[in-house]
Structures
1.
Amino acid sequence: MKARLARGYSLAEVVVVIVIAGILAAILIPQFSQPAIDAAWYHEQVRSAVRHAQRTAVAQRRAVYVVVEAGPTRLSLCYASGCGAGTRLTQPGSTDTFELAAPSGVALGISASPLSFNGLGQPSGGATVTVGARTITIQAETGYVQ
C-alpha cells in the first residue's frame, strides 16, 4: 500500500492559528482609540497649515499670521494679526476660510501668538505649537517647520 502524503493543515492547526489571531486582535485593537487617532490627525493638519502659511507669505510677498483662537479652540491663518473679517486666508481650491477646529480632548497652544511669516518666509520669531502631547517647532531664522 502506498503511503499517502498529507496536504493542507489539520483542524487542530487551523484552530490554534485562529485562537492566536483572536488574542492578538484583542490586545492590539484597543490601542487604536479614536481620541488618539484624532490627535495624530490634527497634529498633521496643524503642521501642514503652518507650512501653508509660510508658502502663502512667500508666494504673495506679504505677511501671513498663524493665530490660535480660544472658544472653540482653533488655528486660523490670516493677513492681519487680529484675524478680523475679510483678513482670513481661504482654503486652497475653496472659498472656505482656513480654520482648523481642535477635536474634543485635544489641547492647542502656541508659544508666540500671533506668529507671522514675512514675504521671505521668515517667522517673526521662533515658536512652538503644542497639539496635545506633540509639538511643532518653527525655527527662528529659517522658518523650518518640524
2.
Amino acid sequence: MNLLPSFRRSAHAAKTLAACIFLAAFTSQTIAQTNPSSTDKDNSGLQLGEFERSGDATTVVDEPASQLPALQYHNGIPYITGGIGSDEASVFKEQRRQFPLSLNFGQEVGDRTAYAADVQVVIRDSDDQTIFNINSEGPYCLIDLELGDYELHATYMGHTESRKITIKPDDPIELNIRWPSDLSDGSVKSLKEDLKEEFM
C-alpha cells in the first residue's frame, strides 16, 4: 500500500491549520491594540469620555461661584473695585477686613439704601498731596493703603463726602458712605433704572 499521497495531504492540512491559527492570533492582537478596553480608559485619569458623560467639563472641576476682580494700581497703590451683583457683593463683604481701607457706597431710597457706583475716590496724604484718584466701578472699593493719616473725598453725582482717616497696624477701617436721595432731580428714578435694583 502506498502511503505517500496520504502523508503529503496530512502534512499540507497541518500547515494550513497552523497558518489559520497564526492569522487568528495576529488579528486578535491588532484589534486589542486599536480598541483599548473601557477599563483602561477609566483608569487613565480624566478622559474625554468622562466629559461627554457629564455633558459639561465644569461639572467635573469644582470652581468658586465668584471671586474678587483683579488688583488694579494707582500711583503704586493696589485697589479693587466692584460688587455689582449679589455673588460678587458677598465676596467683597467677606474680604473687606483683609484691606487696610474698605469703602462701601450707597444712596438712600426711602427707608432703604441702594448700591451706588461710578464714585470718584480721592485720597490726600498728610502733606495735602493727592496720592489716589480713581472712579469706583462698583459700590465697593478695597484699598491697600500704607500706614498714616489721610483725607478721603468720595464724590457721587456731583456731591462730595469727606472723611479724615488714620491707617494703623492690624486695624482695618470700613467706611460706609451714604448720599441722600435728593441729590438732583430724578435721582431716585435714575438710581433704580441705571445702577442696581438690589437693596442692601
